[in-house]
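dude i think i finally got it to work??
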Amino acid sequence: MSGKNIRGSTLIIALWSLLLLTVFAVQLGVIVRQKVTLVYRLDDRDTRYLIAEAGIKKAIVQLRREDAFFGADFLGERWSDQPDAFKEIGVGKGEFTVSYHHSDGEYSRVMYGMQDEESKLNLNKAGVESITRLIEMVTRLTRWDAQELAYCIIDWRDKDSFFQHPQFGAEDSDYKGKRDSYEAKDSDFEVIEELLLVYKMDQEIFDKLKYFVTIYGEGKVNINTAQKEVLLALGLNGRFVENILSFRKGADMIAGTGDDDIFLQSATIVPRLSQVFDLSPSDMSALSNLVAEGKFSTKSENFMIRSVGQLNHKKGRTTIVAVAERTGQIKYWREEI
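look at this
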């Protein structure tokens, strides 16, 4: 081979080597950039989590400082709706917001603070009629389907393996027929997401129901904070429930403000309402029976805290949902994706 050909071959090899090195360098640069981006994203997520966690901690501190007003809890207290304490609070390079939606039936509004679990219907304690009414109201299922699902919930939590209704409900044989076979729990719900394991329950129904039910507490509903749907689920008629909500809102007709009227004790519920409204004998009887059965309280001990953390001038949010006792003990903790 002539010297000229050798030099030509060497040049070609050098050019190919340079090309390969260039391609390798480009690919390496892309990989490095991807890894750097991932590191930044992970770092941002960790930071957002810490900011959201700070919101949870602040809420618990506030809760432990809160002195119950004459032993009663209501929507106008500092744990319930305090934008200055819980809305867009700066922490380092970001901010957190602790909030929830309070429902008055057709309308709901954002409250900045914690939501007491006693404002909801307790699935471990409520009877089948109350559960049926609530499901029917908030999911728009027919009465038949709502009752069927309610009995499935009852059969899930009861201590035996017998059907509580001749037509409705679900026990071990129904769950063993599923692809992922399991049995009815025959014990109390431990987390609210456990509802998704109940026969006839699906994600769409759960997403509508979860805001009105709880598994924490003794099962009594705080009449000062209960949502409209929960009061209706207990069996009170709509007009009477509107009277209760109107009483609670005070003169400005806005829940959670300084002029709210409150019930200090369960024993004062009927007398206070009868002073303000012209109650029918049936209304008086229905409410008196619920009070006598111990369905109501005026105090709350368990609180849901939903804290959202985000960084300044950056997209992305991290949400932590916790349930804590008044003492600060955490019973539930979940990061929402």
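The longest strand covers residues 302-311.
im so relieved honestly
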